[in-house]
Design a protein that fits this description.
- The protein has 628 residues and is an alpha+beta fold.
- It contains 20 helices and 23 strands.
- A hairpin with a 4-residue loop joins β2 and β3.
- It starts with a strand and ends in a 5-residue tail after the last helix.
- Bound molecules: adenosine-5'-diphosphate.
- The site of adenosine-5'-diphosphate (ADP) has 15 residues, from α2 and α3.
Length: 628
Amino acid sequence: MATRKLKFKTELNQLMDIIVHSLYSHKEIFLRELISNACDAIDKIRFESLTDASLAGDDVAYSIRIVPDSEKGTLTISDNGIGMTEETVIRELGTIARSGTKAFIENVKQQEGKLSPDLIGQFGVGFYSAFMVADKVTVVSRAAGSEGSVCWESTGQGAFTIKDAERGGRGTDVILHMREDAKTYLEGWEISSLVKRFSDFVEHPIVLVTQEEKDGETSTKEETVNSQKAIWLRSKSDVSDDEYASFYKHLTHDYADPLHTIHYSAEGTLEFKAILYIPENRPMDYYMVEPKPQLHLYVNRVFITDACEHLLPMYLRFVKGVVDSSDLPLNVSREMLQDNPLLRKIQTNLVTRILGALDELKTKDYEKYCKFFAAFGSTLKEGVTRDLANREKVADLALFQSTRTEPSKFLSLGDYVDQMSEGQDTIYYLSGDNADMLRHSPYLEAFRERGQDVLLMDEPVDPFFADALGTYKGKTLKAVDKGELEEEEENEAISEETQTAYEGMLGKLSEALEEVKSVRLSRRLTESAACLVAEEGEMNAQMERLMAQFGGPNGAPATPRILELNPEHDAVKALLALYDEDSASEDVTEFGRLFLDQAIIAEGSRIKDPAAFSRRVNMLIARMQPGS
Ligand code: ADP
């Protein structure tokens, strides 16, 4: 085959540019990334050969070899892993960009090209980190079961070439033509210190191959530089924070340290070891890729898969890590992993551990817990709707803003209950898109007057959370924009006299405003004139908006709501006066409609006819007389 020249996908060009220019002070991570890829490739062939031994053949002494050559100025990282076909090379190293790349680039642009470690932490840099240290990279690879080999080469500038190559056996060589300022990575001591620091626990031997001069003779020296001790098999007291962090980065390609680490060994009827990590940041593609829990599964130290979906429930999908079980058979197939009773038992155990660890974190290091919750709280809350057995525990872990918390500070349901006034047996909440907007909502007026706190639920999952939970510690959760407000004090009742005075006008408006179920007087308003409420058990505005989002183009049918008017408000009183003067006046309906529009805006929805709204407001302004 002649040499073919192919262009990188645009996003990859931009990505490489960012990596090379922003990470120059962390160049050394290239080695970890390439070792990690080599290790994955070995894990893959070992797993495939469990079911088809011919794939691996005789070459089962798996290893990763690092060969510096100071004369040529190259550093070669070789593995006898699964290798790549021409098609794979083209696809994986140039033409497809990983999901999240676009979002990542956008994000960097917004920060004017400055890449904070936090940001890169949300996006693994992988293979392309090679261009931080090399001005040219050559990859020679031969896929398992294939006769031919392929050579990929690029200077990282917009394009790469593909041609045939010769490689003795299965596997991949990544040859880095080192930049002048990266020649230090050709030194044996530098390489072994980096391997020890970043990749010590890699289960396959990482062999450093150097040339030794002795008595004028040159000989090749091979030395395994990693201890190969699977970190999860060691006892907790033997593993340093640094080692946990390195292992985490190896697993996830995250750049940042994990926020929290859980390491334990289950003994008794169920035996397994686990290291679980809670990342500090939400990965860049968290909302873009199909959400799935993904733990690495090993059986007796043999890698089975890096994406086992069956070890964690969906709502804990942010947890990363490994599970090593000695109870599963080694030749477990991917199909066997589906619906496996043993995995289900392991899952139950992991869930208990994770929820327990989060609870402990919340008690012992609340600040760190809040950081966790800001990143993954909305995912965790799904547990209330999905995991009946752990519903209470998940509810204990949930945090919310409330009318009493300062902006971006939180409180738990437990805190809310502890601070409830005597005799209060309801947990009040208001749901909407944004807590800051909710703080100004008219629905809160009566509660402010009473000195009662209201939870401000501003995430899409929240109304579902509240519905599924129903009660917490014996207290009912109630949306403040639904149903009647219970009277807590004598003076909250509307006098019979007021009711009678308004009866006619309310009747007229109920009839004229056909989009509402009825119009009634409100006890929940003190400052505003009007608000819309849903009947108990029906959908409120936020739920309706969410259902419309999830329910496709037609959405859910809108349920008519009840318009409540504040009888103490001057504007409402003025409308009554107008009605009493001429009950047939068109203006009564027009202004009644204006109250309805205000209420729609206040609940965060959109009014149907903004032009008519403006017309009515202008009509009012036009009536203003100077000095009146
Ligand atoms: P990631 O490893 O996070 O998927 P990379 O950019 O590092 O991203 O690598 C892209 C892909 O290239 C890998 O998913 C893998 O399919 C392939 N690849 C990279 N290095 C090797 C290797 N040494 N052996 C086999 N395949 C490899």
